[in-house]
Amino acid sequence: MNNEIKMSVSPVFRKDGAKSIYLLFTDGDKSAELLLADAGAEVKTVRNSGFSEEEIGSLTEYVENSRDEIIAIAGRVTPLKAFLGQEQGK
Question: Half-sphere exposure (CA, 13 Å, Cβ side) for 71?
């Protein structure tokens, strides 16, 4: 893993009655999608293409440690702005 990993954050949505957020991490040809649910829920790996188990563990730990910040960013994501390619979440 290098310092060029990019993270994309979905807007907050409801899945099975819980607020959830999808996160997409990319690093060159590698990509992983993780699911962050309500507080206390485990971060789940939805899809992984190319990241090692150790790297997924590091990404999961990052998401768990940054949960509040990620939730705040996701709360500012607007689907229409995302569709138009406008930067968001800041």
Answer: 12
Mutual orientation of helices 67-75 and 53-65 as an angle, nearest 10°? 70
HSE of 81, CA atoms in CB hemisphere, 13 A: 12
Query: Helix, strand, coil: what percent of the chain each, to 5?
Result: 30, 35, 35
**DSSP summary character for residue 41:** S
Q: Please give the average per-residue pLDDT across 17-36, as a whole number.
A: 94
Q: Where are the alpha helices (DSSP H) in the chain?
A: 53-65, 67-75, 79-83
Chain centroid, CA 6 distance in Å: 10
Asked if 32 and 8 touch (Cβ cutoff 8 Å), the reply is: no
- Give which of 43, 46, 86, 62 is closest to 1, Cα–Cα: 62
pLDDT score recorded for residue 89: 59
Q: pTM of this prediction? A: 0.82
